[in-house]
Amino acid sequence: MSAQRTATTPGNDVVALLIRQHQLIRELCDEVAAAPPAGRHEPFQRLLRLMAVHEAVEEEIVHPYVRRRIAGAAAVVKDRLEEERDAKEILVRLDSMGTDAAEFMPHFEQFRATVIAHAQSEESSEFAELREQARPSLRRAMAAAAKVATALAPTHPHPGVESASKNILVGTPLAMIDRARDLIREAVPPRAASVLNGAGQKATTDESAANKQVIRRLSEAFNRADEIAMRDLLAAGFVAHGMPPGVPGDADGWVRLARQVKAGLPDQVTTIDDMLAEGDRVAMRFTGRGTHTGELFGVQPSNRTVSVTALEIYRLSGGKVAEYWTQMDLSELLGPPGPGS
Length: 341
Ligand SMILES: [Fe+2]
Ligand SMILES: [Fe+2]
Hints:
The protein is an alpha+beta fold. It has helices at 14-34, 41-69, 74-97, 104-124, 126-133, 136-150, 159-168, 173-187, 190-196, 202-224, 227-233, 251-264, 331-334; strands at residues 234-241, 269-278, 281-291, 305-317, 320-329.
């Protein structure tokens, strides 16, 4: 085993690159924690960008490979995804409260502890598997794709680079992750992409992978309530089945639903728990979690963190979504409210 290993560096090995990023994340956490309230914003923005890129690399490259190619690893990936979801939730809250808020530091310390524990788990589970199982050439291809996005996350302040990267990786933490993910998808070499998507059934895999990507993009656009991006991915005559009462089953209804969810659960973070594709269909199971601070589906805000889960099937035609079926579980949202009601 060790005979197969060549010297690994962040430049030629995705695992070395991710471990180096873990170290940089810890250092940036220290920098934010040591800064006075008025000086936290700048290092926190660098940390946000690095986290966005790092999580996007793991979501697009590491998790799919480990889940598909390593026997028995699906449960490990699921645990890591749940930790990442928790970290993202705290990050979204930190970003919206602002670095000079009185409650920033307690939340930040919680974030730091979560992220450090998560990084240790990754290094001892997923990364160790990846290093053992994936060929050096594949790990090099993964590192090349990861570096495209990593270039957008300078960890030290350099005025020139800073302003260039700010134009590309901006907005909320989730928008930054979306952007970094898009860049990585475009940068993964075709051979590495076919391995990540499951080699051996190339024609089917290509169509399925493309369809899944459309659904991921639609889901991300939905989460941002980005009307232009959503309409771009919905086919003319799009039909939605199973929409909540009062929401039309067409593209206008879809956009309205996204806006309602955004208004009701503004900090919602969505995790895709499963995604399967065959022919022109994609099936997805997801969990959305957020703080219920606005009216949603006629339910008054409870300020509780609630989860909404759903099983969905999409039919694609010509690279767009033509039809959609959903079964949503809104019981936590609609369920017994707090004391007194
Ligand atoms: Fe991670
Ligand atoms: Fe990580």
